[in-house]
Amino acid sequence: MAAEEHAPTASEYIVHHLQHLQNIKQKSIVDFSVINLDSITVSVVLGLLGLFVMWLAARKATSGVPGRFQAAVEMLVEMVDNQAKANIHNAQSRKFIAPLALTVFVWIFMMNAMDMLPVDLLPYLWQGATGDHHAYLRVVPTADLSTTLGLSTGVLVLCLIYSVKIKGLGGWTHELVTAPFGTSKNPIFAVILGVVNLAMQIIEYVAKTVSHGMRLFGNMYAGELVFMLIALMGGAAAMSLSGVLLPVGHIIAGSIWAIFHILIITLQAFIFMMLTLIYLGQAHEAH
Questions:
Q1: Residues near 5 by Cβ (< 8 Å), separated by ≥ 6?
Q2: Alpha-carbon distance 140 to 149, whole Å?
Q3: pLDDT tens for residues 206-259?
Q4: Where are the domains of the chain?
Q5: Does 108 score more than 70 pLDDT?
Q6: Which of 199, 183, 201 is nearest to 191 (CA)?
Q7: More reliable by pLDDT, 205 or 11
Q8: For 126-185, how does the pLDDT look when each residue is reduced to its tens digit (9 = 90+)?
Q9: Can you say how many angstroms the Cα of residue 90 is from the centroid of all Cα atoms in its chain?
Q10: Per the residue annotation, which of 211, 240, 242, 255 is the catalytic one?
Q11: Is residue 219 flagged as an active site residue?
Q12: Which residues, including other chains, have CB under 8 Å from residue 230's CB and lie 6 or more apart?
């Protein structure tokens, strides 16, 4: 007779919820053949949904007194446009960068907002649809390091493109070997300073890209873990006969953290957008 399935322990519950739906089983800690299908699917769906919402706002926009939806979108667009003007002084570049920043904010906000759903809701529905009670599913793409580093790498590529576009290939290459410590008329010192400057530039690009992605990932991953711990409190309350303190604590803690998390998901989307504008603005400036 097969052994009866037991309820998962707290550690098993958290470990299960931190596993991704993947195309294959990961063979090592760093395996680039592994694709997190849940992160890709959810982010693409939310991206299309965000585009539809913004298209709907543009389609229904009127010149008269705006409704609540139009007013909210107009406030958001104006906020992003003001930040773009403050950081990107090239009007031609802003025609692409300002809509990009708006897209980044809306997309990341929606991905972050998936953390507001009950922890077990979508995984439970997915397990029911597949018939596999051990099926994995994570629904917060920004709690996946591959997603956030992918976004920050995209920003890095744009920074490199605009550096070459604005300064020219020769000007940007010259900047790589002369900033931040300058150069020297002595050929030997010029070569030494050039190597040091190039190393510092590479470190700066890598540090900005990694910190850009890690900041968003760290905050959303921590928020996801807190929601899991609160869910565990609810599970313990359901199995406990010791009184009403634990269930009441579960409801209070969940409500407080959810309200506070609304600020976090908005703030993290805003910070990622602002850093995108700042980094692209730096790509337009000469050292």
A1: none
A2: 14
A3: 999 999 999 999 999 999 999 888 887 765 554 554 555 666 766 777 788 889
A4: 35-284
A5: yes
A6: 183
A7: 205
A8: 888 888 877 899 999 999 999 999 999 999 999 999 999 999 999 999 999 998 888 888
A9: 27
A10: 211
A11: yes
A12: 250, 253, 254, 257
Non-local (6+) Cβ contacts of 228 within 8 A are 13, 14, 17, 119
- For 118, 160, 180, 242, the CA distances from 87, given in Å and listed in that order, are 38, 17, 21, 58
Distance of alpha carbon 6 from alpha carbon 32, whole angstroms: 35
Split at pLDDT 50, 70, 90, the class of 2 is: very low
Q: pTM value? A: 0.89
Which of 282, 2, 38 has its CA nearest to residue 146?
38
Q: What is the pLDDT of residues 4-14, one digit of tens each?
A: 456 678 788 88
Q: Which is catalytic among the residues 93, 163, 197, 219?
A: 219
**Residue type (1 letter), 42:** V
Find tokens 């982010």 and name the residue.
Answer: 43
Catalytic site includes residue 112: no
Phi/psi at 110 (5° precision): -70, -40
How high is the pLDDT of residue 131?
81
Whether 211 is catalytic is yes
Tokens of 278: 């700042």
